[in-house]
Design a protein that fits this description.
Distance between the termini: 50 Å
Number of domains: 3
Largest sheet: 9 strands, mixed
CATH architecture of the largest domain: Alpha-Beta Complex
Shape: globular
Number of strands: 21
Length: about 600
């Protein structure tokens, strides 16, 4: 009998669905990609429909549906927290309670009614779902597991181990002590949006100095021997306010929080550097503690904090493990996959198959794809100008365009699962040109100028460019650019904090992917998982001698990564992307009709 399990995450943030058949991941996607609402938390009906279609099954053929959280435990935490600070938390209570009563306590009814489903519904503990998403798709038969996030039910982190088809949680840390919430509090204070701006804070950190680190340790949070943190709650507002920080936080850090979209000052740079240093220290301690407790050679990681690729790189270089593997959809979206895997292996006893190439995640290319016929029908029906490329000409056409300094939107194959574009829904550029970063940030992505771009590099050439000697297929490890490629910095950051002076300086012979501290968030590209994207990089290498491309997600700031050909075309014509590769079809911006829009489309998105 074929065993099908559908995993669901929803009603918190970044809802998703995943379909698993006899232990094999068949499909997975985030709801935001379909609704075009970033981090959409709503019930993922579109993601579910896609997964069932991809598996060619109906909901009635599912053996079980797994939900990634135990809502009653979360409700217990919220009630306990509100009563502990009453009456100060009244406003927060009145804001959240209606949502709980209408949605989160009715999840079984919502699932059954939405899917016309009468089978078994299983609720997995939040951090067990994270742990399962980390271990089961990994290439390891046995490994230690570390999960770190803001909070799920009562847990804010956990460690354990996996062996074969068993995952066991050995210890949890509990709310309100949370490394994830601490990092989010600094994200909020520096003027970025919680649950999406953490990447920005990490990218800002190299421009600052950790001059607040000792103050954080003394007043804000301590680090225990096992790496877990203890928060001084008088500095935080998430218990009794609708804000992450309290007025005491303002006083200790020289004034009120930075307003979104206002100028970034040296204070924000130094705060970013300080909390990043604190986070790296805590995570390194966690890694050493987990190693000492389990004795395992390998480490698997998940949870939103596991997306901190700078800390991950340090764990790989300085930690006690031979290697690490991080779930590419490490946040709540990945909980959908973890819940389904936990049910299949841990509850049903399905045997784990061998890893496929690097792992069992299939490169995380688990979302929708579109045939050439579907793409051509879209282009013809809308009257868009295009050229069809023969298969033997596709990689060379894209590579020549990039080598000439143009920016290309690249749409090919199945959409990525997780927050990173990995060469299926990507915007590509030439890493040799210093202006590539500026053009992409300001004229295409409409985002802050300081944010770095990632290099996509042929796996066999990675050590020629970066201090890395192993695979990093999911853009979750930061490594330094090889010293032989670096150029000396001739300028510093002015006292007024003008980041443009630093951002525009050429720092290596691949300046568009070299951050201020000579680091890069590396993606290694492999023929078995994405042969088309690899062929483009290989063609660029043959033309230029460089086996690296700039790879950033195909979207603008505030918008989810594109899903459909229509999404890709709309982003293409609205921005300064010059050419679009669309599943074998080639579009030139100059040949497209001007898009007539009555309003500023960027106002549709949350640009803070």
């Amino acid at each position: 009998m074929t065993r099908w399990t559908l995993g669901i995450s929803s009603f918190y943030h970044d809802a998703a669905a995943a379909l698993v058949r006899d232990g094999e991941i068949i499909a997975a996607a985030q709801e935001e990609r379909f609704t075009r609402r970033k981090f959409d938390p709503s019930f993922p009906i579109n993601s579910i429909r896609y997964c069932l279609d991809e598996g060619s099954i109906s909901a009635g053929e599912l053996e079980s549906i797994a939900f990634y959280d135990k809502p009653l435990l979360t409700f217990d935490r919220l009630m306990s927290s509100y009563f502990a600070v009453a009456p100060r938390g009244l406003k927060s209570w009145l804001t959240s309670t209606p949502r709980w009563m209408s949605q989160k306590l009715r999840i079984p009814d919502i699932i059954r009614d939405s899917l016309d489903y009468n089978g078994q519904i299983i609720f997995t503990p939040h951090h067990l779902a994270h742990a399962a998403s980390a271990f089961y798709p990994s290439p390891y038969d046995q490994a230690a597991i570390l999960t770190i996030d803001g909070v799920g039910e009562w847990a804010t982190g956990s460690y354990g181990w996996g062996k074969g088809k068993e995952v066991r949680i050995l210890k949890e840390t509990h709310f309100p002590d949370s490394l994830g919430l601490l990092y989010s509090a600094f994200t909020y204070f520096c003027g970025f949006k919680v649950n999406s701006g953490e990447y920005k804070l990490m990218g800002l950190a190299p421009y600052g100095e950790p001059r607040y680190l000792e103050l954080i340790k003394k007043e804000i949070a301590g680090i225990r021997d096992d790496g877990s943190v203890s928060l001084n709650l008088k500095y935080f507002g998430f218990l009794d306010r609708l804000e992450m920080t309290s007025p005491q936080f303002d006083r200790i850090f020289d004034g009120k929080r930075r307003l979104p979209e206002s100028r970034i000052t040296r204070r924000e740079m130094d705060l970013a550097a300080s909390i990043q240093a604190f986070t790296e220290e805590a995570m390194l301690k966690m890694a050493h503690w987990v190693h000492a407790q389990t004795g395992e050679k390998y480490l698997c990681m998940a949870g939103g904090v596991a997306l901190n690729c700078v800390a991950n790189g340090r764990i790989l270089r300085e930690g006690p493990f031979d290697d690490i593997w991080i779930q590419p959809a490490a946040g709540d979206a990945g909980g959908a996959l973890g819940a389904a895997l936990a049910v299949q292996f841990g509850l049903r006893g399905v045997e784990r198959g061998p890893p496929e190439d690097l792992d069992r995640q299939k490169g995380s290319y688990l979302g929708p794809s579109f045939s050439e016929d579907e793409v051509e029908a879209f282009l013809k029906s809308n009257g868009h100008a295009y050229t069809y490329l023969n298969k033997c000409d596709r990689a060379t056409t894209v590579a020549k365009c990039l080598a000439d300094g143009h920016i290309v939107g690249f749409f090919s194959g199945r959409m990525e699962y997780g927050p990173r574009a990995l060469g299926s829904r990507s915007i590509l550029g030439d890493p040799r040109r210093a202006e590539t970063q500026k053009v992409m940030n300001l004229k295409i992505k409409y985002r802050e100028s300081f944010r770095p771009f990632a290099p996509a590099v042929l796996m066999e050439k990675v050590s020629d460019y970066f201090e890395l000697n192993r695979a990093s297929p999911y853009m979750l490890l930061v490594a330094s650019v090889q010293e032989s490629r670096r150029l000396p910095r001739t300028t510093g950051i002015p006292e007024n904090g003008d980041l443009l002076v630093a951002v525009n300086e050429k720092r290596s012979d691949i300046p568009a992917v070299t951050h201020w501290d000579y680091s890069a968030r590396v993606q290694t590209v492999h023929k078995t998982t994405n042969p088309i994207f690899r062929d483009v990089i290989d063609a660029f290498y043959k033309l230029t001698g460089y086996a690296v491309l700039v790879n950033t997600s195909f979207n603008v700031r505030g918008e989810p990564i594109v899903c459909t050909p229509e999404d890709a075309y709309r982003c293409f014509v609205r921005t300064d992307i010059e050419f679009l590769y669309l599943e074998g079809f080639w579009l030139d911006k100059k040949e497209q009709p001007k898009l007539e829009e009555t309003a500023d489309w960027r106002k549709e998105y949350e640009l803070d």
